[in-house]
Design a protein that fits this description.
Layout: H1 5-18, E1 24-25, E2 31-32, H2 41-54, H3 66-77, E3 92-93, E4 103-114, E5 120-130, E6 135-136, H4 139-149, E7 152-153, H5 155-170, E8 174-183, H6 184-187, E9 198-205, H7 206-209, H8 211-221
Parallel strand pairs: 4-7
Antiparallel strand pairs: 1-2, 3-6, 4-5, 5-8, 8-9
């Protein structure tokens, strides 16, 4: 039977380094250590510094646990860095009853954060492809989107990355990705223009080269 000592030692070291960072309040107000992401001291301290720089007091009751919560929230917001979106396209199906028309997943809601101000990007995406000889489970298209969206992004790159991933791994006749989103870095600061949306698109293959295919997919997407 293998020894558990290395695991226990590592667990002790982690708790020793981050013991004051494990404590957090659950939704019911109870304190728990289970299932929590350990946060390094320097990360927590950076958020304390930011709070103090904004003019607030990080020691007051309402902000006392904020650095820990913010750190864990950002780890979740950026969970896409630990995800390879192409993995979601690895399982495909050839038997589709002779279906050879476009496949469209429309108005997929997503959230991301801009790499310039780390402000929220909230929007929706429509993803289509024209299968050649393989199709993928429809939820996988949304997983590809979220894998790239859960990173610091610009909308143009997000659109291109989603399209390129599908193009490379499914090798379809065509791919179309259209993203429409609101950027908090523009609506809540700077020029402060709420209600403004940004639209980006990436067309590949038949959706780029063939006018009828392009018109069909854009019409089904609502553009």
């Amino acid at each position: 039977m293998p020894s558990a000592a290395p695991y226990l030692t590592r667990q002790f070291v982690i708790k020793g380094e981050c013991q004051m960072l494990y404590h957090d309040a659950d939704d019911d107000g109870e304190m728990s250590e289970k299932g929590k992401i350990p946060v390094p001291q320097d990360v927590q301290q950076a958020i304390v510094t930011l709070l103090r720089w904004t003019g607030d007091d990080p020691e007051r009751e309402g902000l006392r646990d904020t650095p820990l919560r913010v750190a864990r929230a950002w780890k979740e917001y950026c969970s896409g860095y630990g995800d390879d979106p192409s993995v979601h396209l690895s399982r495909t199906f050839e038997e589709v009853g002779g279906y050879d028309e476009l496949v469209l997943l429309k108005d997929i809601p997503f959230q991301s954060h801009c790499e310039h101000h780390m402000a929220p990007i909230i929007g929706k995406a429509s993803i289509a492809y024209m299968p050649k000889d393989r199709v993928v489970g429809i939820s996988k298209l949304a997983r590809v989107l979220h894998g790239y969206a859960r990173r610091l992004q610009v909308q143009e790159r997000l659109t291109a990355e989603v399209a390129a991933c599908i193009w490379e791994h499914l090798q379809p006749h065509g791919v179309a990705v259209v993203i429409e989103a609101s950027h908090s870095c523009m609506t809540a600061r700077g020029v402060r223009t709420p209600g403004v949306g940004m639209i980006t698109s990436r067309l590949l293959g038949c959706f780029l080269d063939d006018h009828r295919s392009r018109k069909e997919v854009m019409g089904l997407m609502g553009y």
